[in-house]
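Holo prediction — manganese (II) ion.
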Amino acid sequence: MDFELKSLTLHQTASTVADALLLLWPDAADQARPAVDDPLTVWARGAVADGDIEAGAGQCLPAHRLPGVKPRRVVLVRTGDGSAAAVRKAVAAGMAALKAGQPRTLIVQAAAAGGSAVASVVQAVAEASYVYTTTKSQGKPRSLRKVTVAVQEAGAVRSAFEQAVATVHGVELAKEWANRPGNHATPSHLADAARALGKRPHLTVEVLGPKEVAKLGMGAFLAVAQGSEEPLRFIVLKYQGAPKSVAPVVLVGKGITFDTGGVSLKPAPEMDEMKFDMGGAASVLGTFAALAELQPALNVVGLIPSCENMPDGRAVKPGDVVTSLSGQTIEILNTDAEGRLILCDALTYAERFKPRAIIDVATLTGACVIALGGVRSGLFANDDALAAALLDAGQAAQDPAWRMPLDDEYAEGLKSNFADMGNVGGRPAGAVTAAKFLQKFVGTHRWAHLDIAGVAWKGGTAKGATGRPVPLLVQFLLDEATRVRSDAKPTKPSAPAKATRVKQN
Ligand code: BES
Ligand code: MN
Ligand code: ZN
């Protein structure tokens, strides 16, 4: 699907050939009275004046073969206050109204939209038209081929538009891999997907197998992988957009391609959804795809420890003690708390890059789903500025997170009589104890952990991956590129943080 951004008047839009048109109509347009005589404005004003469409973001009025209008199907879509969130909701509703018609070409007339509303249009059109086909024998690809976003002044929103399109590409790569079933998305398949990304400009990829990982001494990661016939992969991606001397951001993504729980076997209902347990890894791949497209001036390393978590005669057993890459020993009390075991070795590995920040992304705990549901990712961080930057990025990208605590008292339950720590800390605050476990492996590095267990996929009839938190990560990295640039000029007194703090509500 191709997106293009154009400066078009409503006259021009009316005479542009396309299968369908979404005419976005903010409340403010009701009052505006410039003398315009184009057929779209005349129709929309009339419909509003006659009360044929109610106020409120998402209200729609479909029309067919309007006189003087080339696109055969037109939907008037109210966008309320015109905010990014309202536009996203409105475009989703407009796309639903067009669904039966299966348009191949679409114009979204978003006359006065600013950058964030334009980004909303791109995200919502992509979301509504996405289809998963890979393992369907009769799967039809998405019908929508070309989307034109028409605004008054394209130049003013060009960079927001380009960021949104690259983000959509990243989101869709993440969705594709997360949606693939476990037998079509093994650690080796993920490594191949990463290698394909490695062909893009400024991107390199290296893949380690079981022998290399054993030689490094990643005993915790190896312990999880040892119950599976599928060989583990440790994927290292590098995006270099700045000089080598610039410290990289390291992203770490949990890549459990199927989580049975291991010997601490999970119950059968909904176990299929544990194919999504590589959502963190998928989001790292998607973020690198977006980086390759946007080419920001910073360096990023991606680390993906990937394996299956299976029960087997050789599988790790509750009570087994393993030695992590850091040298710390771990008593594996519950083999279903496997994500932290593969992540801890990757976090230790991250230190060798002398990173400016480490961010891990993981479908880590059911407890985080209970705490925050499917709305916000759980954010844990040992650095307030890093936490604020990630929260701001999530807010700006409509991929929000919520900060969670890291008080040391939460680590009490991780004590073990037989190792330096256990891998579980009891049921209370399970998302926090998991984060406290990870924190033992980051030393004093600036570090954040995103628990995406609630947001990486949807269950029920809408079952499928969301591609989150690719939008948050892409926004954060672009913001970070700005900070890298200002760090590089130490002579100037440091400017006050540019990002506007968005209040959480
Ligand atoms: N992948 C799961 C977390 C998960 C569960 C995500 C349900 C989304 C929905 C993780 O590996 C896991 O099993 N965690 C355990 C930890 C527990 C044993 C301390 C959990 O959350 O139950
Ligand atoms: Mn598990
Ligand atoms: Zn898991």
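READOUT: The mean pLDDT is 96.
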